[in-house]
Amino acid sequence: MTNEIKVALSVLLAAVVLFAGVRFLSGQPLFGGGYDVVAVFDDAQGLTSGAIVRLNGVRVGEVREVDLSPDARRVLVTMAINGDVEIPRGSTVQTSGISALGEVNVEISPPQGATAGRPLAGGDTLVAVSTPDLFDLISGESNSLTARADTALIGAVNTFTTLDRILTNSGGDIEGVLAQLRFLSQAATTLVTQERGRIDRTLASLEAAAANASSVSDRVGRDVLDLSTVVGNDVVATSGVVRGLAEANADSVTAAVNNLSSALRRADEQLAALTVLTADLGTITTDLDSTLNSPAGTLGLLLNDPSLYYNANAAAATLQQILQDLQADPSRYLKELDGVVRVF
Amino acid sequence: MIQIRGLSKSFDGVPVLRGVDLDVPEGEVTCIIGRSGSGKSVLLRHVIGLVRPDAGRVVIDGAPLDELTYSELRRVRRRFGVLFQGGALFDSMSARENVEFPLRTFTDLTRDQVRQRADECLALVELPDAGAKKPAELSGGQQKRVALARAIAVEPKYILYDEPTSGLDPETSNTIDELIERLGATMGTTSVVVTHDMHSVLSIADRIAFVHDGTIPWTGTVADLHQATDPTLLAFVRANEYKIGTPSQTA
Amino acid sequence: METTPDIDPSLGARVRAGFAPLWRVPAGLLEGFGAYCLLLAGAFNLPRDLSPRLYARNLAEQMVQVGIDSIPIVSLATAFSGGVVVVQAIYQLENPLLPVTIVGTFAEQSILLELGTLVTAFVLCGRVGARIAAELGTMRVKEQIDALEAMGLNSRSYLVVPRVVAGVLMFPMLYVVAASVGMAVGGVVAELSGALTVQTFWEGARLFFRPYDVFFGLVKSLVFGFVITSIACYTGYRAEGGAEGVGQATTRAAVLGCVWVLFADYLCAAILL
In this structure, are residues B131 and B146 in contact, taking their beta carbons and an 8 Å threshold? Predict the structure, then answer.
């Protein structure tokens, strides 16, 4: 054997061993090339080429390339998938890990249920589920909070508008109703006072969320402020009428309304109680309305009609009971909140 | 034509050559004689630019060695064949490969021509069957003869011999002397022989240069040697004759 | 008024002479480094008037001597170091909080990054470096280098280039041998130890494997191949004074080779990691 042949053999052998060894240690099959799949991400989150691609937590390949799409709106991540791995159609892909902690990898999850059609082949594209990061979570939370606040506030506005109209129409002869209303207001005040801590916490988290997601918080702030202003104006208008009608009770009603107003500003869980409250107020006003609009509907008849008193009284009692229940177990009402909210 | 002008060289502050002038005429055998350590070998190494002089210059065929680039110097060296004192055969190669080496390296001969020429050269030094042996398997004298075969293989214009006959038996010495003479006669090769073997000097030399104490105090032909009066030269010649124990041959 | 300071004219010379011993060592080192650079520069300034065939033949011969003939000793050395790494990893990392796969990880990182190259380099400092230095040193003191020069050959190119190129080309091959033998023996030792199975060992080895590690090892072995062979050529080329000089050149080749391999190892790590 000549020297040249010896050298050639040894170098070739070493190259083969090198190739096989690297592929073996990389967890790739020795033969069979594999194929490329492109995943489209909104945000690469620090993904780099060489990152591991896992399917259900099993290493199946690695990221070959991370590129921006031509319009720079998307990130195209080319993944080299080992030849013997079949990725089910409809799989979702997302990044895992946090770049600040070092490792960002790609996680593929197969779809729920039976397989849908052929598995992915080379050149196929997966659209990535954007992994909500901390900011996204906060924004999402704020949005639902805002929606709930909106609904509750709109309900309250409606209620107070109706109440206002009724009170305006019914003149100065509904002291009994006002007395009940005063009681209701006091109960509401008590409730608000007792739940202050919770309100504060809610506020604090809302503020934190708002601070973190400025755009969202701006919106939340603006919406809450706008609505609160509307509601507050309404409430003030209502309370002005109330005060004009019932001087003796004016202070406490105003205080109660102010408390309600501040409660409205604070939103969240207390919105549930508020919604319940307004729902009952709605019932009352509906009663009042129907009474006033009844065929025998003159004011004198109304005032002489004892059933109004009884109705109002019963409504007030119910409301009182509800408020007491609410104080005892607010969470039960929170569950019903959604249903109530839809009424408005 | 080799011209040496005012050549001086010191090693570690000890002067070895101090202003040597020498002309080597073409086609002749010039013997450089002198006592051991007189600077003969150093002088020879200057001729092919292996040693850079402190002062003076060596001019080969009109080209001063000190003005040549390294590749030009190498081209000049290819006109030379050099027989080193110890033979300087390449240990890793067989005797034949040693002889073939300059042929393969510097000529365009085919493989057969190279082999043929190597055989000729080995036959010339009377070692036709030593080709397959490694230098370590050859005796000192055989090594020297293979080295001579290597030196003459490319038929150089000049051949430098550094003590070609030292350590050889008288018969082999005579063979080499005859070879040196024959090369000069048949191919017009210019030979420079560094030796202190007066016996071979008298048989081969056209010209003699006597090196003493870093200079050349005397040059002349063999005939001139008998009229020489230089005391150091005479001392050297007589000592040599006495050692050899034979009277000097006169042509 | 104006006085000439009375300075001994020999003062400067005496001061210089006084500092000479201090200067001699760095000057010697600098001189040696310069000679090394000149040798390489002269060697790789390939003469265009020589046939490439001459170099190809020499290169093949040197590649066999540097590379293929070294495979057994490199395998032996790295087999033992692979085994030792695994045994030590099992001993040191025996901790209920650590997964046993860490033995494989540890072995993979040690062998591919460091042992595969460094143990190989040290073994070859002795085997290849010393052989080159002895060979060239002998050629130097036996006038064979002069004979090459006298023929009109660039002896530096002729002798140095094939050896250095063979080192640069064959050391990566030897690294592959070293790494695979080391890892294979490591796996066997892991299995025999009873602390973990060979499957667990390979699982651990694959866990944090990066192809860059192998690339790094290859680059390092290439650098070491250059360092060892070029230093050996240098010390051999500068040998003088017969058998003793050859012995000194050989020793220097091995010692200098090891030192510079360590230095190059640091440089590679600093630059490439």
Answer: no
- Residue A167 confidence (pLDDT) above 80: no
- Note whether residue B144 is domain-resident: yes
Instruction: Identify the pLDDT of residue C249.
Output: 93
- Give pLDDT, residue C1: 46
Chain C residues with CB inside 8 Å of B88's CB? 142-144, 146-147
> Counting runs of H as helices and runs of E as strands, what totals does chain C give?
11, 0
pLDDT tens column, B171-217 = 888 888 888 888 878 888 899 999 888 888 888 888 899 888 888 88
Looking at the structure of chain C, the number of domains it has is 1
Length of chain A: 344
Model confidence over C171-190: pLDDT tens digits? 999 999 999 999 999 999 99
List CB contacts (< 8 A) between C47 and chain B.
Answer: 71, 74
Which of A2-11, A149-158, A208-217 is the most confident on average? A2-11
Domain boundaries along the sequence of chain A? 34-127, 134-343
Can you give the pLDDT at residue A53? Answer: 84
B33 is a domain residue: no
Nearest to A190 by CA among A324, A315, A340, A337: A324
Helix (H) or strand (E) holding A230: helix A214-245
Whether B135 contacts chain C with CB within 8 A: no
Domain assignment present for residue C61? The answer is: yes
Q: Is B167 on the interface with C (CB under 8 A)?
A: no
Enclosing domain of residue B145: 90-155
Residue of B nearest to C52 (CA): B105
Yes or no: say if B160 and B22 are a contact pair by the CB < 8 Å rule: no
Q: Is B143 domain-assigned?
A: yes
Q: Is residue C25 part of a domain?
A: no
Chain A neighbors of C206, CB-CB under 8 A: 24-27
Residue with tokens 């590129």: A67
3-state secondary structure of B21: strand
**3+ Cβ–Cβ pairs closer than 8 Å linking A and B:** no
- B247, part of any domain: no
Which stretches of C75-171 are assigned E, i.e. beta strand? none
Average pLDDT score over chain C: 87
Q: What is the total count of domains within chain B?
A: 1
Does residue C199 form part of some domain? yes
Has residue C26 been placed in a domain? Answer: no
Residue A342's pLDDT band (boundaries 50, 70, 90)?
A: very low
- Confidence (pLDDT) at B219: 87
How many alpha carbons fall within 13 Å on the CB side of residue C69?
Answer: 14
CA-CA distance, C146 to B242, in Å (whole number)?
Answer: 35
Q: For B148-162, b where at least 16 C-beta lie within 10 A, e where not — what string?
A: bbbbbbbebbbbbbb
B101-112 confidence digits (pLDDT tens): 988 888 888 889
pLDDT over threshold 80, residue A291: no
* The pLDDT value given to residue A332: 56
Question: In terms of residue numbers, what domain contains C201?
Answer: 52-272
Alpha-carbon distance of A198 to C106, in angstroms, equals 53
In terms of phi and psi (left: phi > 0; alpha: psi -120 to 50; beta: otherwise), the region of A95 is beta
